[in-house]
Amino acid sequence: MFNNKHFTAIVLAAGSGSRMNSDVPKQYMDLGGKEVIYYSLNEFQKSEVDDIILVTRKEDIDYCRKSIVEKYGFDKVKDVIEGGSERYWSVRNGLDRVNGSEYVIIHDGARPCIDHDMIIRLMKEVIVNGACTVGVPAKDTIKVVDADCFGVDTPDRSTLWQVQTPQAFNYADLVNAYKEMQRDNNHNVTDDTMIVEKYRGLKSKLIYGNYKNIKITTPEDIDVAKIFLNKNKKSC
User: Fold this and answer.
1) What ranges in the chain are assigned the alpha helix state H?
2) Which domains does the chain have, with CATH numbers?
3) Which pTM was predicted?
């Protein structure tokens, strides 16, 4: 399908999940009888990506290897590595371990509701465009506020999308963008599309993801994700 082009998925699971009010990091919390991180790893395992790098906290590396990767037979996971203090350092650590891939897919492990179709469409688009992300059109009106939280502008909602992950990039472009970001000492980064746009001048193609593709951030998100995952099972 992809003409022998090599893809590596970098799955990020190094967060502490402080807003979950739990001693267990959100990526390892129970979600329908399995860990949150299981679901995204399982989708990449079943997909056409060639290999997976799992990025986690240093203290969780052995746990991930034995209780996640080995337990579920995720043989596409070629490396479990230590992440950084910030998301972008975790991505950079993952990029350093990529071996021979033309394209990389970056995904937040706290988004368990991705599916095979989403991954395939992303892989196809990145080959054509070089940088691609899933997202959904904004449903709500968005306000720009000042330092005192007074509204100062209302952007046209038809031009606004909520960006999600996974995001896919030409490997060389993303690595070079990160190198330039480090030289610039820029830490004001929330996702990887920002980096290639600013430092490589590349526009990212947005493709429709899914409103179900939520990020587990607060305790209520676990309940919502459970509903979505149960619906997906029934539709299979």
Assistant:
1) 36-46, 61-63, 71-72, 87-96, 116-129, 171-184, 192-200, 219-235
2) 7-134+162-235 (3.90.550.10)
3) 0.94
**pLDDT value of position 177:** 96
Q: Residue 21 to residues 116, 130, 221: CA-CA distances in angstroms?
A: 31, 39, 13
Share of the chain above pLDDT 70, in %: 95
Residue that the structure tokens 């606004």 belong to = 160
pLDDT in tens, 64-85: 999 999 999 999 999 999 998 8
Residues 6+ apart with CB under 8 A from 135: 161, 162, 163, 164, 206, 207, 208, 209
Residue 187 has pLDDT above 90, yes or no: no
Angle at 62 between CA 61 and CA 65, to 5 degrees: 85
Give the max Cα distance, the chain. 53
State the pairing for strand pair 161-170/131-137: antiparallel
H-assigned helices in 8-60: 36-46
